[in-house]
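Hey Z.,

So I finally got round to the guanosine-5'-monophosphate thing we talked about over coffee. Here's the setup:
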Amino acid sequence: MSSTAHLSGRIHEAIRRANRVLLVAHKKPDGDTLGASSSVLNWLLREGKDVRMFCADLPAPCFRYIDNVHHYTTDPSVFDLPYDVVVVFDSGDLSYCGVADHIPRLPAGYTLINIDHHITNVRFGHINLVLTDASSTAEITHGFFEDNNILIDPQMATSLLTGLITDTGNFSNAATNPKAVDAASKLLGLGARLNDIQKYILNDKTIPALRVWGLLLSRLRYNATYDVVSTYLLEKDTVDIPGDVIEGAANFLNSVAGSTDTIMVIREIPGGLIKGSLRSVVRDVSKVAKLMGGGGHKKAAGFTVKGKIEETVNGPKII
Ligand code: 5GP
Ligand code: MN
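And the result:
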């Protein structure tokens, strides 16, 4: 038996025995953390388990086609209950999912399970199913269901396909691999609603949002010393426009800027913070992100720091 199948079996055993389970998605949840966790939610509801969902930020409205998405709560009082199993999806550490202060105060006796694909994962679980070559946590979760002969219904298939599509940039970025494409093919066969993913995730840009993209594109600069193309967005640029309007911008730039290795998008986010998104073709940008207190993958990483962006004649400066 491979070590992955062995880990899958241990996780299945722990969940099978559990009465109450907590599933955790990471902050500012993306399609992967939501897709993977909601597929497990649907399975556990089918099994009659008492299952709770925590996410420090509520899922964006675009994810409303995902069944049971209303189950996620931002209320930390879910950590007052005793659990047999806690599963964290798509998070390299406990801070990234906003539970570093909550997990230690859980009543003792739980098994913490970490399912993830980030190269910077710190193996915080009692059981760590961390596959850094996987395209997505959804791909790993699909493998978990297959290893344990768990029926994937159309809702679960839709959730998992969401994670695969969002983390591979619709099968176009460096994370795309044969397993991801194979899993997607199987999920379509199982009834995944690709139409919904296209409508709500891929073709979701409003005209005001596209104007912000125009602004972002007009600010592109090339730094020859570091071979980096960068751009930025201020908090005031997106006032009154709902949702994360430049979601996917770093991925898009990485896929179209053929002549350069590295893309960096920095933006002001609420709370006096700056979020950086790094993408590359060859370089290991997770190292840069880590230096800035963040993390991620070799070719897609990010960080969040305190500060503001000042526009200068030489480009943006973080102050
Ligand atoms: P994005 O740029 O799409 O937000 O993130 C790209 C990758 O970097 C994701 O896989 C994400 O997990 C990771 N990442 C982004 N921001 C942070 C951060 O602040 N901390 C950590 N640890 N990882 C991050
Ligand atoms: Mn992911």
